[in-house]
Structure formats: C-alpha cells, structure tokens
## 1
Amino acid sequence: MIKIYLDQAAATLPLPEVVEEMIPYLREKFGNPSSLHEVGQVARKAVEEARARVAGLIKADPEEIFFTSGGTESNNFALKSMAFAHQDKGKHIVTSVIEHHSIIHSAKALEKLGFEVTYLPVDKFGFVDPRAVKGALREGETILVSIMHANNEVGTIEPIAEIGRVIKEYNENLASKSGRRIYFHTDAVSTVGTIPVDVKELGVDLLSLAACQFYGPKGAGALFVKKGVRIIPFLHGGIQEGGRRAGTENVAGIVGLGKAAEIVSREMGSWNERITGLRDRLINGLQEKIDHLYLNGHPTKRLPGNVNVCVEFIEGESMLLYLGMEGIAVASGSSCTSHALKASHVLVALGVDPALAQGSLLFSLGKDNSEEDIDCVLEEMPPIVNRLRQMSPLYKKP
Amino acid sequence: MIKIYLDQAAATLPLPEVVEEMIPYLREKFGNPSSLHEVGQVARKAVEEARARVAGLIKADPEEIFFTSGGTESNNFALKSMAFAHQDKGKHIVTSVIEHHSIIHSAKALEKLGFEVTYLPVDKFGFVDPRAVKGALREGETILVSIMHANNEVGTIEPIAEIGRVIKEYNENLASKSGRRIYFHTDAVSTVGTIPVDVKELGVDLLSLAACQFYGPKGAGALFVKKGVRIIPFLHGGIQEGGRRAGTENVAGIVGLGKAAEIVSREMGSWNERITGLRDRLINGLQEKIDHLYLNGHPTKRLPGNVNVCVEFIEGESMLLYLGMEGIAVASGSSCTSHALKASHVLVALGVDPALAQGSLLFSLGKDNSEEDIDCVLEEMPPIVNRLRQMSPLYKKP
C-alpha cells in the first residue's frame, strides 16, 4: 500500500475542486459544444471559460489557446503541423537531444518524410546553449525551433527567453532581407502550472501544456499558437477550435484543465516555496546518507519538485520495487518509457555513463508532500541501497 | 429550457453507471498506467479491463484495441498512419463522398502529400455500391479502402460486409500474384454501441469507434487494428498502447468507454426495438402532417434512431431555433460542421437540391426518448413550419 507518493511527474492527484467542477459535464451538462441549442451552448460556455483560464495562466489571449488530448498531441500538433504548413519555405527543424519522445519521435517521423532535423547537444547539466541554437539556424531552410522549457526527467530549466531573443534577432535580420521568419515552439508540459510561464517573456510562437501535470485530469491539454502564426490542423475533420483542431471536445476534461489553471495561477507561489524546500532537503539528505550517489541536472536551476539521482552499482528498477514495498512510489525516469528498459536518452545526453544511468531514480514532489515523506525516504532508502549493493557483482565491498 | 432532447448523434447523456465508474479514476485512483508502482498498476488494470470490454462489444481481441481521444483521432490515425505505413506499396486510397469530415479532410491532406484518392459516389439513399469499390481498386496502387459503416447524417447503413468480401476476393487474387494486399477500414463511430458490430463478419482490418456515441464520455475512442496489420503511430512519443499510440492514457475516459461498451452490449437489443418504433412513428407522423417534407436516406436500412428530413421552402436553422424555444433540441446536420452554414456534403451527394438541403433537420433518438417526446414534436413542428413558410418568399401560399 503506497503511503508516500513521489511520482508527481507521472500523474498528479486532481484537486477536489477540479473534479467537482468536471462532474456536471459528465452528467446533466453533457451537450456537444457545437450544438446550436441550449444543451450545446451550456457546454460551449464552459469550454470558453476554460479557454480564458488557461490563457490567463500563461498570459496569452483566449483565442490563442487550442485544446488537445494532452501534451503528446500538443507536441505532435506543433511539430508536424508547423512543418507541413511551412514546408514551402524550408524543411529544416532545430530541436535538442533531450526533448520528450513526443518531440523526438515526431521529428524522426518528419525526417522520413524529407525534413532535416538538427538535434542540439546539451552540457552536463542539460542546458541547451542559445549560441548553439543561433549557429544551427540556416537561412532559407530553417522553419522551426523546438526546445523544451524544462526537462521532465532531470528538471533542468532551459534558457527559453534567451533562445527566444536569439530567434527574434535572427528574424529581424531575416525579415529585412526576405520577409521570412523562423518559428519557436517550447514543450512546456513540465513547467506550465508548476512555475510561472509567460509566453511573451519567453518569446515563443507555440507552447504545449497538459493538465495532468498540475492537478488536472489526464486527457486534456492545449497548444498555444500566437495570433498570426499560420498552422494547419493535425487532427483533420470538423470545424471545432476555429478549424484548427477537429473532434468533439472533451468538455469535462477541458473544464478540469481550466479549473486547475485557475487554482494553480493563484497557489503556485506558496506551494513552490514549500516544495523547493522539500526538494533540497531530499537532495542534501540523499547525498549525505548514500555514497556513490550523483544528482542529475543543475543543482538550483531545476523544477521545484524534481530530484533525479543515479545510484552507482545498482539498478533503478530494483530500488523502485523495494521502495514500493515500503509504501513509497517513485519512478526510474519518464513514465512514457518506463517499460522500455533502456538507459534514459536524457541521462546519456548529459554524459552520464550508460551503466550508471541504469541506476537512476526520479523523485517528483508536489504540493501534497510533507517533510515526513522526505524523512521517511531518507530513512528507508539507505538500507535498501546497501542490501542491493551487497547483491551486486559490480560493488566492491568496503 | 430543453425538455425533449433529440440530438443524440451530437452527444449522448452518459449512463449513471458509466460516470460512477469513472469518478474514482479522477480521484484516489489517479495513477499513470505506465508507472511501475502500485498507484500506476491500479490504473493499468482498469485500462486493460476497459480494453477487454471494448473488444467484446465488437467481437475483437483485446490486443486489437488501441485507445484514442475519440472518433476523429481514430479516423485520422487509420487513414494517415496506414497511408504512411504502406506508401512503399502504393499511394492510392478509395473512400466515399459521404464520409465524415475526419475522413474526407484527412484524405485531402494526404492528397497534398502526393497520395491519390478516389471518392466513390453514392445512390439516392446514400449507398456505396460494392461493385464500384471493386472497380476503383488498382493493382499495385491501392493500399486502403475506407467506407463508413453508417452515415452519421442520413443514417444509411452501408453494405460493409459485402464490400469486405469484395476486398477479400481481390486480395486472394492479388496475393497469389504478388503477395500484396489492400486494407479495409470502416468508420463505425455511428454504429458501434448502436447496432451490433462484429469485425469478423464485416471483414474489416481497421474500425473506428467513439464512446460519446453510446452513452459514454467525450474524449474517449478506439481504433481496432486486426492482428498482423502493420500500422505506424499517428501520435508519436512514448510507448503506450503497445507503441502504437503515444500519450498518457485518459484513464477515466477509457474506463467510461469500457463501462459503456459493457452495458450497451447487453441492453442494445431491447433499446433498439423501442427506438426503431419511435423513429418510424416520427417519420410517419412528419410525412403525414407536413407537406413538401422529404425523408433523407433509406426508409428502413438506417440507424435505429436516425430521422433526417428536408422541409421545403424554409431553413433548417430557423426550425431548429423555433423548436428550441419550444424546448426541443434537434440539429440541422452534423454537429461537427454546425457552424459552417453550408449545405451538407452528404445531402448534396445524395442528389438533394442544394436549396432543399438548406431545410434539413436531423432528429436523433436514443434510449431516453419516449413516445410522448415524439408526439410533442409532431404537435409542435407543423405550426412552426407553417409560420416559417408564411415568412418565406419562396413559398407559394396554397
């Protein structure tokens, strides 16, 4: 029985107010927002209210928000639809090696269709260098840059505003010569609802977000598309979402996304102060109590709730199972690839030795976690590590 | 205030048992099915139970069911992913002119990428001729046929099993010569959960379905892909759904889809007997009471709850508004294009005069409708039609 849940990156417990607000849209307010009669219009009104709330969370205009089924769809939408919409102007895309697989595998799919993709490297903390972005841009070829706002595994927060400025400058030069421009997308699934996000400050044209990352439901996300940016649908069909995203709206999910956005806008600041404290308590405690343990990502420029470590000589999955038996839920990396049994592509990109990367453990903390949770982990984990190391042929007993 | 809801094709009221079963997965059972710990495994178990229930509804195997965000995604997935997966074998697709826009616009998008699409015509009832399908197949070029099981607007049930046999025969011939084959997809969003559907009897390789059509939630659907059929992901990313559909699962939605599938499997027969009676009562009553009123689609080979009529000399939208004021919710056509203000592509394809097509009205009936509902419509509608006709410059007063 899990007593301590430290896998908030995989799923957050929706806020009670979020679920309360969703339920009527599964019951009496079940209408289709496209229906012209009253039953439909009740649903339409709820969808538009949610759109305004999501826009508020990222300082966008409501008409710049397009609802999707989640972060993965938003990322596929951004990459593929921008590629197809602008392929007449060039077929080159710039991204990084540590993006989520919904970006990397979309990019690989585009490569098969004749696009060219540059995957920028990162430094040992996981930072993408804005100068490297600049260096990768090709006049008359590059149409899109997509760099994540924060890495979902190691928590590193990327210099998106700086990259935004690099692209803006480049575009100003380019426009004076050719009238063309390069678009900038950020996968902000790990940051929206978690840390303050302002699309204007970041200088992005497109941004992906997902409700399940900030105490909202699964199956609801959005893509921000700046006014004036031409994009074609990824899901073709009806004329929902201004003709940009077809399909009957998941009204209850969208309502939940909106409510979560409204609450986190208000509460995020005080939650984060506490979560950051817990994060640092966990990092310091682990480093104190367990030798041959290495923190992945940057010590401070990281998500408030992210603690990603590698424990040498043992496997992440074994630790995960033993911690589970003690009632502690953690992950060994991204939940989207939890069954892949491969070393994380992010850790490998940071230069972590593949053998060491097998011993990775991802604790992700949220507003519901307490100091007691952290202290319990700090008590339970050292003996587990010891026991596993005793069984490991790689570990030289001291 | 709507008292009589006859727009079941746009949205059905989820069954109370469906919502009851969903709610825990928005609350305490909030885990990510990809998480290896107990919180995740509870969600995983629910997703797999839903998969078995959906498979049961269409007589498929659970491993042939891939969850999506709804009918539109399933149709995009089927068409685009099959096209890209098999383009080395040919770039020709056969579909019909009366498909849902999620098929037609996906096909148009593929045309822009170099695919060739044949849009088969239909007869005055909306039937696709299996011989026309056979005639459209091109050896070494055709890779996919996609014909809907029933039309969502006029309710005509297509001869899918016959078309399946035509394609099977063709493939047997083709295989003996070249080892190649043509795949067969049906958009069964309007039929699954509404009338019995058996993928083996239909002879299809792929089939789309959506929960919101049969008293389940919005935002949850599935694509059936027959074992052995090669398909690539439409949503790229993580390795959910056996690597075929990335993205954190909408667990609550999937649970609702599964529960709805389980209930309709059991109840559909008795519900349909009653719904068909109501449908015919409405058709007969309208034809008796209103002159210059024409039934669209086939008189009997139609969905149990579908009544689509054209009322000459007036506009569907005006009728819809007046009926709304009397507390009756209906549609003028597909909800996915309700704001398009164009004559329905389906009615035009059936040969309905475009002016007459503007006067279309779609009543869609479900298990919650009663004889009183029908009688109320039959009482309220004739005076509304009269009033509107008196205002119409096209109507010659008798």
Note: Residues 251-289 of chain A form the longest helix (39 residues).
## 2
Amino acid sequence: MAAKPILQLALDYVDLAPALAMAQLLHKEVEAIEIGTPLTKAAGMLAVSTVRHLCPDNIILADVKSPDVGGLEAKICFDAGADWMTVLGAAPLDTVRLAFEEAAGRPGKEMFIELTGIRDIMERAKEWRDIGVERMVYHRGWDEGNASRVWGENDLTTIKKLIQMGYKVSVAGGLGLDMVKFFKGVDISVFIIGRAIRGDADPIAAARRFRAEIDAYWA
Amino acid sequence: MAAKPILQLALDYVDLAPALAMAQLLHKEVEAIEIGTPLTKAAGMLAVSTVRHLCPDNIILADVKSPDVGGLEAKICFDAGADWMTVLGAAPLDTVRLAFEEAAGRPGKEMFIELTGIRDIMERAKEWRDIGVERMVYHRGWDEGNASRVWGENDLTTIKKLIQMGYKVSVAGGLGLDMVKFFKGVDISVFIIGRAIRGDADPIAAARRFRAEIDAYWA
C-alpha cells in the first residue's frame, strides 16, 4: 500500500518577498514547498536557499524544469538546499541521465521528470524508467490551462499506467479542492497546489481543507 | 541580402562574479551577450540586470528557455533589461504565443524559439511561424553534445529550410573557430560562442578571431 499523498505548496511568484511571506505562513501546514519555475528565474537559487533556511523541516522542490545541462542544474539546486529538482520531459535523454546521476549520488536528493508540453508521454516514460527515474510531475501547464484544457479520464488512465510502470506521480496544474476526490483510488504521491491555497483569503484554512480532503480519501 | 552575422558571447556560468568579469572583458568585442540558462537559474534576473548596466551598448539575451508561463517569463526578462529571450521549442504553443505577444508589445524586444531537445523541428516550425515567430536558436545542446552529436549536413539542410520559411537563425552548441566556415553561404543571423572564446587563454584575441572569420566568409 502506498503512503498517503504529500501536500506540496507551489510558490508561483516572480518576486521573492511575497513568496517568502507565504512560505513562512504555510510551512507548518504542508510537507513540501515548491519554488516555482518563474521564481527560480526571477530570484535564482537565492529563493531556494532562503526558503531552505526559513523552512528547515519541509521538503523543498526547485522546479527548474531543466532543459539541458542536467547534471549542473541538479547540482546548483541541491547545493542551494533543495531536496528535489525537476528536469523537463522534453530534455534530451542525456540531460535526464546526468541529473538523475547527480541526485543518486547524494543521499535524500531526488530528481523528477516534469511533463509540461510532452506529447508522447508513454513512449518517453519507458526511456526514463530505463535510466532509473522513479518520480514524475504530471502537470497540466499554466498556458495549456489557459487554453481551457481540463483534467479528464484520459489523464487518470495515463497516471495509472505510469504508476504501474513504477513511477511515483505528483499531480499539478489548476487543482482546486473539489479536484482531490477526482484522483480517489489512485496512489497519488504528491498533490501540488498553488492558487487554490495562496489565493484564498485564509491560506492556512485552505491548506487544512486540502489536508482534510486528502485524509478523507486516502485513509 | 541578409546582414552580416552577429557575434554573441554565451555566459555559461553558475556564479555571477566570473560571468560579469567575462562580460566586462569582452563586451566591446561582441554585439550580443547571452545570460546562459544555468546562470539565469543560479543568479536569477540579477544576472540580466547587472550585465545590462555593465554593457549598455550590447544586445542582451536571457536564455531562460521558458517551458511554460511564457508571457510572464518574457516580462521578467524584458523588465530586467534583456532585449531578447528564449522559449523552449517543446513548450506548449500557448506558451510560445504568450511570450511572442509580450515581446511584440514592447519595441526592440524579441523572443526566440530554442530547439534543444526538439525531435520534430520542421513540423513545429510551421506552427511557430503561424504565430508570427521569426527568430530561432538552432542549438546542439550541451548534453547532446556530450553524447558526441556533431554538426552535419543534415543540420545545414534543416537550417536552410528554416531560413526559407522566414526564420532568422542563431546557431549554438560547441562551435569552435574552425566551424564558422561550415556555415559559409548560409544567412546565419547570430553565431553564439561560449567555451571557444571564454575558455581561451586570451579571450579578447579569441573573440577577434571569430569576428575576422565571420568577416572573411560573410562579406
């Protein structure tokens, strides 16, 4: 039986100050905190190292979506204090391999494949598993979301296949509270929630509602 | 007749200080300076804004290889002082469109498609042109390069087709001085050179050799 899903807060900001304030407010309500891709570019690894210091007990994911130079990008993320980092699924296989090897050589560090923009998921998923990759962010991207793509049964089917292949799957992208139960019965590894928590008038209460909803469906 | 190719220095560093020193040393020898992808993540937009101040007369490219949230990533690059920014070819079409629109609304700003990792270039190139994209970085990625991929006639053929489609093409990836003439007769828009200049014992002399070589073949 898989573990109960982790709740991960996505810090989707382009300025460091409000991101740090939200991390400070919520870090005791979530297991993991994600430094969103635009924030990794706006503030660089200062965002990772500062959240690391403010939130010493959280898992920290640096969502750099590395497209190339995977070993080096993994190294700068881990050196800055990240536990987890992401490589873009569209990256060359060697990029995936180099980032995976960097993580494998450092206890507690892990790399994730990030699926934004990938059209041939299952074909590539086999290549990544052959390298040894075990973790994946199944992501409905922001811009894809803007084009009104919605979560559907085909997503669930794909996620189940990926789990059968041995992947621990994080889900991300426009997930509101009412979407948690959509994944009921599936061994989701991590729920990544952004706007639905930080955009709430009471983010602490919102995080607790997500926690309760996860607890309700994954006993 | 196309303009003579631009010489662009790639600052491929993960620490800001040596990148700034190299920019200071070479900014009068090149037209354009690129903030490399790992540096955009290590130092964030501080790298872009500092190079902007140190090198007011150069074109500055922020090679963020945006994989999603294209409009916002373009905005933070341009706000930081970049003239050019890149979107990953593997990004969703909406990401490309949003970054393109952000650039189009700001005089002098341009977005480039960056081809690292893309397997179906020509198919996608049509989609990007339909959006209005005119610039492209034809890139042999670092990790692909490590796997000993080399520039070949198939690359030249593809680049010529892309130029015929209306693209201004930058070329990048392991280009040494002896590779400049490989592109003779092709309207290359930008030569992006990293290691072959900054790794030279005399980077100024190396940059001048590239300039002379370009001048020799593009009269």
Note: The beta strands of chain B are 6-11, 32-35, 59-66, 84-88, 110-114, 135-139, 168-172, 190-193.
## 3
Amino acid sequence: MKDIHFICTYCHKIYSSDHVHPRCDECHEPLEVETVERGTISGGNSLNQTILERYADFSPFVHIDKQLSLGEGFTPLVASPKLSSGLGIKKIFFKNESQNPTWSFKDRGTVFGIQHAIRCGYERIGTVSSGNMAASVAAYGSKAGLRTVILVSATIPMEKLNPISMYGPMVITVDGDYGDIYFRSLDIGKQNGIYFINSDVPFRVEGSKTIAYEICEQMNFETPDYVVVPTSSGGNIRGILKGFEEFKLSGFIDRVPRMICAQASGCSPIYNAYAAKKETISRVDNPETIAHAIENPFPPSGNEVLRKLRIQNGIFVAVSDDEILHAQKKLAEDGIFGQPASAVGLAAVKQLMNRNMVKEDETVVCIITGGGLKYTAVYEKHNLPIFNCSLDNVNSFIAHHA
Amino acid sequence: MKDIHFICTYCHKIYSSDHVHPRCDECHEPLEVETVERGTISGGNSLNQTILERYADFSPFVHIDKQLSLGEGFTPLVASPKLSSGLGIKKIFFKNESQNPTWSFKDRGTVFGIQHAIRCGYERIGTVSSGNMAASVAAYGSKAGLRTVILVSATIPMEKLNPISMYGPMVITVDGDYGDIYFRSLDIGKQNGIYFINSDVPFRVEGSKTIAYEICEQMNFETPDYVVVPTSSGGNIRGILKGFEEFKLSGFIDRVPRMICAQASGCSPIYNAYAAKKETISRVDNPETIAHAIENPFPPSGNEVLRKLRIQNGIFVAVSDDEILHAQKKLAEDGIFGQPASAVGLAAVKQLMNRNMVKEDETVVCIITGGGLKYTAVYEKHNLPIFNCSLDNVNSFIAHHA
C-alpha cells in the first residue's frame, strides 16, 4: 500500500491504510481514501492494460495483482445524436457500464476491493447486494480463489439468484431488507473474518473513480456540464465525483461537472431528504420500483451524497416507473439495452429539461449502470410485438408489412 | 470504399465492391473481401477509438461512419492460471466477447456490415439468426435509424425473442430451421431491397478479423499455438483466421495459430464432414444441443471452413452437452459466465488434451462468444445451491457453514 490514509467523510477522523471497517467509529459516516495530491495517466493503449495500471497514480496500491482482473472498465462512451435532438439538448452521451465482465459498473469497485482484502490477509470475502454487486463479487471471489458469501434480501426477484450462484459462491437469501442486512454484515464480517466488499467500502469508491477518468479521456478533457448517476447506496456517485475532483487537482480538467443524483420515486431517500431540506436521510418504508437495482431504502452513503452534492451545486431528482420504462425503451431503440435502473439517467434528463433545470445548450453524460438481460420480467411492461410466418409466406409478409 | 474486390473463396471469381449478394453466382460458395497487401495499426489509446479506426488499414472502407458504432470490440483477453493448471496446459486465455454492446462477438461484424449497407444506399437491413446476431443487428439497425427485419426460427427458445424486440425491429418467427431461412432470406433481400447482414456476408467476416488483431496486440505479437472457436455458420472462425493471416502478411506476427473448429456433437456438420473425409458438409437432421447459439444444421460457410482448416493443419472437434455444461460451470467458477456455446472452446481443449492432440507445453486462446445471461434455462441443469436464513440466524449459519 502507498502511504495513504482513510478519512471520515463527515468528521475527518483519520484511519490507517489497513483499516477494514468502512465507517467511522465516532460519527458512523463512511470513510474514504484520502486524495493523493497530483498524479498522471499511464500512457499507451488501454487494450494492453487494466484500469488498475492505467490509473495507478490515483489508486491506493503500490503493487497491483493483475491476475485478479477480469478485464473491467474501459467501457464505451456513446454519443446519441438521435436522443439529443429528441430531447432538444446539445449533446447526450451514455457511458455503457453493461460492457463489464459481469455486465455492471460494480466490477470496477470489486477489483479494487479484492486487492485490499487479499493484502489484509483475508481468505473470505462477501457482499450484501440486490443483484449486480453480488454477481460481481461472486465472479471476482472465484477468480481469486477466495471463499465468497453473498447475502441477498429474500425479496429479490428469483431470476437474479441463479446467475450469482453460477460463479460458485455461497448464496444466502436473508429475510430482511437491504438496509438491515447491510448493517448486520458489518458485525458478521468482524466475527467471521470475512471482508465484506459492500457498496460503499472506500476501495469500491476508488474503483468508481475510474468512470470519471475514462469520461475525461474520452471527451478529450472537455468535461460535460452534467453527469447523471442512478443512485442507490451512493458509492458510485461518490466515486465518480471524487474522480473528477482528482483530475481537476492534477490539472487534467478545468471544471468538475455538476453531478445529478437520480433515484426512482418509489425509493428515493436521498432526493426526499434534499426536497425536505434535511441534513440526513430517513429510511423509506415499503420501497417499490421497477428499478430493483437501486431499491435501497436506507443507503449507507446517503448523507454523504447529500453533503457533497449540495457543496458542488449538484441536482437531486426522482423519476416514476413510467418515466423509467419509457426511457428504457428509448435507449434500446438507440442500441443500448440497460436494466431499468440504467434508464433512470435518461428519464432524469428528460424531466429536468421539462423543468428547465438542464438547458438546451448543455452537455450531459448518463451512466448506464447495468445490462438489460439482468431483469427480464420487465419485458411484460413493454408489450413487445413478435410476428409469425410460414417459410412460404414470409416474403409476401415482408413486402406488405416491413 | 477502397479499391477492393470480393473474391469467391472456392473458384476465385472476382466481384466489384458494390456487390451485395454474399455468395458466388457460379459455384455458390461464400465470397470474401480480397486481402490488402500490407497495413499498419493506428497508434494511440483504444479508449478513444473504434475498432473501425484502429484497424482501418485492414478494413475495406475509406470513410468510416463512427456514429454507427456502439463501442464494439476491444474486449479483454483473460489468462486463467487456475484452469491451465487444472488442465495441465502451459497457458489458457479467454477472449471475452460477452463484453460487447449486445454481449456477443456479432457486434464486430454488424458494425462493418452496416457501413456497407448504408454506403450501398439501403434503408432496410435484416438478418437470420438463432439469437445473438438478431440482437446485434437489431441494436445497430436502430442506432443507424434503419428499418430492421429479424427472421428467427420458430424453434428458438422464447426467452430470446423479447430482448431482440426491445431494440425496436420487426421480429418474425418463421416455421423452418436456420438453414432453410438463411437461403430464403437471400431472395427476400433481393426482392424487397433489404440488406441481409447474415452470418457469412463478407463484411461480417471482416469484422471478426479484429478479434485476431486484438489477440495479437494483447499477446505482444507472440501468437498462441491454438485458437479455439465455437463454430456454427463458420463466419467467425473464417474472419479470425483471415485476421491472423493478414497480420502475418504485414509482418506483425511470425506464425498463424492453428485454428480449432469446435462444434456441439448434437449439431456438428463441419466436424462430421471432416471425420468422414468429405469435401462438403451435409445437413444435420434433428440437431439438438444445449448450445443453441451454434445449432446451425447446414452452415453456409461450412465447406470453406473445411477447406481452410485442412490447408493450415487446423483441428475439428465435437463435444457433448455434458462436456459443455461441465466447462460452462468451470468457466463461471473462474469468473467468466458464458452462454453454453461459449463453453464449447474449453470443453474442446479438455477433450483434445485427453486425446493428446493438444500438448502440455502449448498455449491456447478460447473465444467466449456470448454472455451467460442470454440463455437462462440452462440453470436447471446445474443444480445451483441457494440457502435461506432469518436475519437473526445468518451469523451463526455463516459461522458453521461458510
């Protein structure tokens, strides 16, 4: 490890680099890795690198174990002329995180977290997840040869369990919501020697920084006006913002984009606190949204997201399931098929333009957090047409209908 | 278009660059783009390029429309120390094509094919597909704003249709097998002005070449002894071999790897012809394999794959569904979750090592053709364990069982 420290995001208490518990002993807010002052991007072609190597100056590690990588990150930034003209906005881009090894952004944080777990001597890892993170930690745990425990809320759609179990971890459905299980896992980890790479461990946040670094490179260091992040636990948006701030500190960019924290209105604890002008979030009772991947009723980084975005003039927004479904179809009709949570960004931009909060001469990047094949029950909502023909009739059918 | 020609892979008849029909008028074998003599790799970081740009010297296009790209290619090459020691082989790598925009290798060929379709003035495209290619052509067709017709065998697992229809094409299930529909589509295309970007159109083969180029770059131009390709229509293995041959011609590599054409024994027309020492393939009656993505009973490039691999001392192999399922689980337990067809490569290597045809001091690259979420009915075959616990009991359950 480099000579780094963890710092509490709220009270600024300092912890040493072998600290594993993700929250402050005093104020119970999340810790983060203290930012190094300046750094540079390793040159060359990303085809021959991992994100750990390319952005090594900005990571907490001196030695990197490349063999723990599955080839995460370096995802495309796709411009959409069609959707930008439809929205009446200057430019909209999609950072397609569904092109990761387990088809969500989680892989970036997992490859960072697992480096730390192994460095600290752990032989068992775990996570508490509503789906994407579970698949990711299971995959990387298997790759690293570690015993892996996945705790999942028993309310998870059943179709999400098998693709986690395929990787070979111990999958346990627990009768409780994500918020309850998250806090319980901290004790379970301590008592059983399991490193829980949960959504807001400092190293997962470090992994999410690389999304910002790549956006900067892909936009030739001209940052967009906004970056929209579908937000659940809050770890990803924290990491992306930290990444932009570090690149500004290092002189790569002139300004940090305004972050948009986008939630589903069926579970929007951070947006609710913002709207009610509160300092801290409150647990959402009976969360319900089609965007299961961001259905966390009591996000562990919620207060910190509130604080950070208020400082940087960020935006908080909540979108309905109808807005999400509409955006999901629009995205697919532009070639990008994301899970419902992935469409929350586009839905948010549309709403914010209608409210005149995002302007037509501005540029936006939306994070596509995970792939559409992750949640197939959503097809029912779209009334998708499928035709049938005999081999002999197909020519005339096409001549008349295509 | 550059000053290129199509050439018949069998009788070598020459066709002009605006030719659309993918097969020779005389001998009915597939056409291919005539190889340019030498080329070079565009430098720089692949994060800021498309595959069309990086390998432009080896593509048939003078002008490239980047806006048709969804960020295909530049997929990881993942080494597996665990599986290589398990197999007793020097090194095994996996080229993970499930990290493409629609989660299969097809996207490479589609982005090439659609350039040609638009250049030739088409406003409608189509494909005949058992799944992966359909999703890919639908996505790129939507991105390009073209009307897209997808012909699918009515025997396709239903779960594959919705994720195709999401992109907005006209999906038609046709009562017939893939082989019948393929040949019918050639007439439908002519009569209705639809460019069918089928599995072996010359430009799709051009796209598959980029898999070889990337492997060369990722292995620092020291090519492996073998590249194993799960093979259905034959277009992908043709493209990968052509890519290696072109890089050898251009002086980037010293030798072309031996290609392994791996099929499922429930549908192995190319392997059958090889085993029977025949010059041409015969249609497989009643194909049946868990690897639906490669279940083509009469592959349009079958004869050409036979010819080319015989010349280069390639290997033909067929693996059972049991071998495929075993390999699929082993792969997932190393962090890579592919659809059953994707596991055919690893299953083939295992069988060939048992038969002493691949040796322990050799190096192999397996192509992971598509992602595991594409075919979820396979979970039933794996007897995946999932546990349940109350929130209060989870700590003691883990203490005793994890």
Note: Chain A has a mean pLDDT of 94.
